[in-house]
User: Which sequence fits this backbone?
DNA sequence: CTCTGCCTACCGCATTTGAGTGATGCCGGC
DNA sequence: GCCGGCATCACTCAAATGCGGTAGGCAGAG
């Protein structure tokens, strides 16, 4: 069939995967798809950036591995998005820890698929992101949503009501005295609450507390 | 037991939709699915809560409309999750504004599908959420991801490269000396950078900085 | 009744942090 | 060449913060 209904040219895809065997496997499969066209194959971020200038047209989608060497995939993301702002990036990795997912999304990834999925899902993810979607594996999507729930686990029951209120003030960027004013307490009382909060949440500074709160690790 | 092919009983689904016509349409379609069993049909949040006690078993999934009357769906969410903590909620609505999505996710929704989708997608979303996923329509997923990119605008160009690195350290919850160690600088140098950052970003404390960073107001 | 946990408040002390000032060197624009 | 911005380091001072303990009142559990 000559694809009489296809209104679009094949999608230009770049594949960055450090394992040569997997790279071969993925490229074999993906390139065989009529909707896709693999314009770049790289085994590292460096190789990817080296090959970029050779392309006539920038890739529309990059499948980016969060490689074994350190976190090269994550490190490369900002530069990639800077060079190719209109290119969609789908992370593709075995790691599903919240922090790595969070980092990837903050750095501009538009999709995050895990590596234990069928090849068809990989293809679907690439097409989906090109259509303006945000493909995410089940576990990843859940992690992302978990990021929105205020504090379903830790702080519930752990912190007393007063401590919650004090915490709220701190999260708003207030100092001890300002929190005290807001709650109509003595600054010393607030200080006591703050100390107890630190102990309960296992942190040892305002900065650490706010940082972890921001990451939803609270 | 009969049902030789089914390892699981049909999924108990509750459908809350204020438009009688749509409710009929959806329930007709969804109840016809062998994997699903509509145990509750409601035209409002009140009706839903009224019918809940009559059920032998709580629904496993609730398809919740963000109804036309105000935002009844959103308002009902916290109560719903409180009564049925283990029930998954999929929002189902025509609204795709960021704030409504954000509110829904914060309040405990695990899925968010728009109303202009094929009925098959609705069914898929229900099954997906029951399997531990987080089904979201394309546009919704993008909104969610957009929520993570905190600072594409302001700080770019405003802060020097060094200052960005120092800021990064602060955001990670580190103190001056720790940032200094990470960057291989004198603590005094870091302190100078911190002061300059405060001036440029118009804040006057670490707490305020981290707070605004968390809110994406940076 | 005792014990525990919470809320309140205070004291003291070491460290961190915010704010000001100054100094050196590098770089780039005018 | 001068000036401004940047990066680096240093010093002071006052305020905020982290950390330890003490202590009375109050409520619920044992």
Assistant:
């Amino acid at each position: 069939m000559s694809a009489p209904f296809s209104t679009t040219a094949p999608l230009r895809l770049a594949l960055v995967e450090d394992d040569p065997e997997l790279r071969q496997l993925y490229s074999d499969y993906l390139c065989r798809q009529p909707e896709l066209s693999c314009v770049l194959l790289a085994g590292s971020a460096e190789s990817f950036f080296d090959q970029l200038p050779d392309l006539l047209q920038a890739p529309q989608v990059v499948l980016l591995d969060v490689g074994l060497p350190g976190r090269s995939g994550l490190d490369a993301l900002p530069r990639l998005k800077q060079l190719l702002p209109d290119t969609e990036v789908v992370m593709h990795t075995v790691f599903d820890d919240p922090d790595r997912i969070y980092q990837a999304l903050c750095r501009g990834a538009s999709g995050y698929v895990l590596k234990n999925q069928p090849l068809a899902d990989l293809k679907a993810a690439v097409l989906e992101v090109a259509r303006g979607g945000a493909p995410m594996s089940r576990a990843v999507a859940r992690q992302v949503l978990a990021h929105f729930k205020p504090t379903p686990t830790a702080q519930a029951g752990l912190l007393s009501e007063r401590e919650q209120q004090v915490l709220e003030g701190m999260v708003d960027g207030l100092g001890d005295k300002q929190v005290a004013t807001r709650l109509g307490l003595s600054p010393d009382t607030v200080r006591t609450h703050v100390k107890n909060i630190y102990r309960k949440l296992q942190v040892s500074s305002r900065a650490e507390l706010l940082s972890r709160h921001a990451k939803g690790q609270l």
User: Anything to note?
Assistant: The interface with chain A takes residues 102, 105-106, 108-110, 128, 131-136, 138-139, 141-142, 144-145, 148-150, 170-175, 203, 205-214 of chain B (CB under 8 Å).
